[in-house]
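Hi support team,

I've been running sequence recovery on a batch of backbones for a student project. Most finish fine, but this one hangs at about 90% for roughly twenty minutes before it completes. I'm not sure whether the input is malformed or the queue is just slow. I've pasted the structure tokens below so you can try to reproduce it. Let me know if you need the job ID as well.

Thanks,
M.K.
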């Protein structure tokens, strides 16, 4: 069962509950930049997220340099942001807090 793309109102409502996340300009996707104390902290967090991503069968686009991880979330199968992206974004924020 594939989740449906959120409409504008649903996406805005979801964003209002997510700390630091924004819509990618010109793309139906969510983004946030995470910063950690060092590479070890960043990669530890990425490992936690990777296990959750496998559990959800939903995977981030991300880019890591040292203590920084730039994340983009979208549901490729749906062509836009779905509840799965909101769920993973919430997990990421909580795990980084
Ligand atoms: C076959 C597998 O279930 C799909 O390719 C999953 C895997 N992970 C995924 N991750 C993301 N972000 N979007 C998807 O549409 C997606 N689809």
């Amino acid at each position: 069962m594939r989740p449906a793309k959120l409409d504008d109102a649903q996406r805005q409502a979801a964003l209002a509950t997510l700390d630091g996340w924004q819509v990618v300009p010109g793309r139906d996707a969510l983004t946030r930049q995470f910063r950690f104390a060092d590479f070890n902290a960043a990669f530890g967090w990425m490992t936690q997220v990777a296990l959750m991503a496998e559990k959800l069968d939903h995977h981030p686009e991300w880019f890591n340099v040292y203590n920084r991880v730039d994340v983009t979330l979208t549901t490729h199968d749906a062509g836009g942001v779905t509840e799965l992206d909101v769920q993973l974004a919430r997990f990421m924020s909580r795990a980084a807090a």
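--
Follow-up from support: It reproduced on our side and the slowdown came from queue contention, not your input. The radius of gyration is 13 Å. No action needed from you.
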